[in-house]
Amino acid sequence: MPNGQLISEKVTNYTLSNRQRRIEIKVGVAYGSDPKQVIELLTSAAASHPLATTNPAPQTLMIGFGSDSLDFDVGLWTDDYDQWLQIRSDVIVAITDALTKAGITIPFPQRDLHLQSIDPALAEFLRPSDPRFKN
Question: What value does the CA radius of gyration of the chain take, rounded to a whole number of Å?
């Protein structure tokens, strides 16, 4: 809202009379996962929370192809505005449990490091002393 409108127009605080709160959770899963199965699991985990509303019902959307993951957005509403952080935490734990049970992994960023050239003295210094790491 532009500052000018705050000064010159009536402002309504919807949280004063409406205690609903939307909760969003971003989730990335490993490439190769079945998006339809993931959507079902995420939506079910959100809907299983006792403080999630049924109208509107929780919804999961696939939002893109990330560099390391298939990306999803879980949205749910609660009537208990004051508890939204705890509800969000509970749903994240339920999502983690559901994905683990289904064998779907949440990937972590992976990067490859390619060295063009390296000083041989530095290479020797960086080489671990453990004999298992010998070339």
Answer: 23
The count of other CB atoms within 10 Å of the CB of residue 41 is 24
> Crossing angle, helix 84-102 and helix 35-47, to 10 degrees?
140
Tokens of 113: 């490091």
> Which amino acid, one-letter code, is at 94?
A
State how beta strands 70-78 and 21-29 pair.
antiparallel
Which tens digit of pLDDT belongs to each residue from 5-38?
666 777 666 556 678 899 999 999 999 999 999 9
Taking residue 120's Cβ as centre, other Cβ atoms within 10 Å add up to: 8
The token pair at 81 is 């505005």
- Whether the CB-CB separation of 52 and 76 falls below 8 Å is answered with yes
What separation, in Å, do the N-terminal and C-terminal C-alpha atoms of the chain show?
63
Contact status, residue 23 vs residue 59, Cβ threshold 8 Å? no
